[in-house]
Design a protein that fits this description.
The protein is an alpha/beta fold. It contains 14 helices and 16 strands. The strands form 4 sheets. Strands 1, 2, 3, 4, 5 and 16 form a 6-stranded mixed beta sheet that branches. Strands 6-13-7-8-9 form a 5-stranded parallel beta sheet, with helices on one face. A 3-stranded antiparallel beta sheet has the order 10-11-12, with no helix packed on it.
Length: 415
């Protein structure tokens, strides 16, 4: 246990997922003095069901070092794991192992303790670290992923937590053995969870407001030059518009706020992976087009009353409801920032309003990943967005702290 220890650094990174680790790898290569805190790949390891697959193609699931040497493809080859850029889905377990290996190789100085509190001080920011250490940083990068962003529909919020939970709370779905489960949602998490439960012989049903859409599997054949020009695939599907969002987050940032927010809400809506279709269609009852009107606990379990747009009603019963209803960034729920700091952050629909360098309205406080999607586009909801983010933000921070960079380089050489 560490007590009453205080250190200083230029940049503190809070979170050790794909974004945090990629940014740290870039800062390390540039010689910027930094500290990074968190458990590597924690969200993917502790909050995704075992047996789940990434929706993104494998070539879009890399973490990013400056030289692009530590790729998922190379990791799979080294460990004799099946891999194909587009034809083999990536298991969450494989992705976690890859991320941990990336961390050990390129970010070995990770501090595997949690940040308990971030507050503003005259020198910049003070971070209270689990175990008692205090760290003063001139800049802080919040890379906590979706840990504070889970959404449960209002109609379900009155249910007790032992009866209704968010999908991010169940890494091992075997806990539902012998119980009737209703999965609410129509995206990748909902269908993956239903498929896994079905393979475990757990009674499961899906309830979704809209028809469930499945991604189309990429064609195995080599595409023509014209196809690659008109329908490029930069990681989120063979679509010109989507690919522009992936390639140019800086230009997306220049769009009017109302347009940015509308695109982020509507583009790339929830969808299931192509690989899960045959596990749920015809095997898991799916009630689509219905919205929840009321849910209450009864002696038999949970009774859910639903209705569609035409007024047709539906009544379902379950022992447990899993709300696979996605994530929405909320500064107010990021309680590791002290109350004064949270109140000073300007918002866009609950997310922080960011400059073209990911900086919030509070100087020196940066947000990446999902909280940056309103500012830089839908690519920031995916691992794919970490490439542009890491390179762009590292250049910004290296320019902001050139003196610290020089001292860090000298210290490294002396060591």
């Amino acid at each position: 246990m560490i007590n009453n220890v205080e250190t200083k650094t230029s940049v503190a990174i809070v979170g050790a997922g794909p974004y945090g680790l990629s940014i740290a790898a870039h800062l390390r290569a540039r010689g910027v003095a930094y500290r990074i805190f968190g458990s590597p790949m924690e969200m993917w390891r502790e909050h995704c069901p075992r047996g789940m697959f990434l929706k993104s193609d494998a070539f879009a699931a890399d973490l990013y070092d400056p030289k692009r040497q530590f790729t998922l493809k190379g990791f799979c080859a080294q460990h004799n794991l099946p891999y194909h850029d587009t034809q083999i889905p990536v298991a969450v377990e494989t992705f976690v192992d890859y991320g941990v290996a990336f961390q050990k190789a390129l970010v070995p100085d990770l501090t595997e303790r949690m940040v308990r509190r971030v507050s503003a001080v005259r020198e910049g920011y003070r971070l209270e670290i689990e175990g008692g250490e205090l760290v003063t940083a001139r800049a802080v990068v919040i890379a906590t992923g979706v840990s504070h962003c889970s959404v449960i529909p209002e109609e379900l919020q009155g249910l007790p937590p032992e009866r209704c939970t968010h999908s991010s709370m169940h890494p091992d779905l075997k806990e539902f053995d012998g119980r009737r489960v209703l999965v609410v949602g129509g995206g990748a998490s909902a269908t993956d969870i239903a498929a896994i439960l079905n393979t475990l012989d757990t009674p499961v049903e899906i309830l979704a407001r809209k028809p469930i859409e499945f991604h189309t599997k990429s064609e195995p054949k080599r595409r023509t030059l014209w196809e690659r020009i008109t329908k490029p695939n930069f990681g989120l599907g063979a679509n010109f518009r989507t690919s522009m969002y992936v390639a140019f987050p800086n230009l997306f940032h220049l769009l009017p706020q109302r347009l940015r927010l509308r695109i982020t809400r509507r583009h790339l809506p929830p969808a299931a992976g192509y690989f899960v279709r045959h596990h749920v269609v015809g095997k898991v009852p799916m009630h689509v087009g219905y919205s929840i009107r009321q849910a209450r606990v009864t002696e038999q379990g949970i009774q859910v009353q639903c209705a569609d747009a035409q007024g047709h009603t539906l009544e379902l019963e379950a022992d447990h409801i899993i709300a696979a209803t996605g994530y929405r960034p909320s500064v107010d729920r990021l309680t590791l920032l002290d109350e004064t700091l949270r109140a000073a952050i300007q918002r866009e629909e609950g997310a922080p309003r960011l400059s073209r360098h990911f900086e919030s309205s509070v100087p020196g406080l940066y947000f990446v990943g999902l909280p940056s999607a309103n500012s830089f586009g839908p690519v920031m909801r995916f691992v794919r967005g970490s490439e542009w983010t890491a390179g762009h933000l590292a250049r910004r921070l290296a320019r902001a702290y050139p003196g610290e960079r020089a001292r860090a380089a000298v210290a490294s050489a002396a060591t």
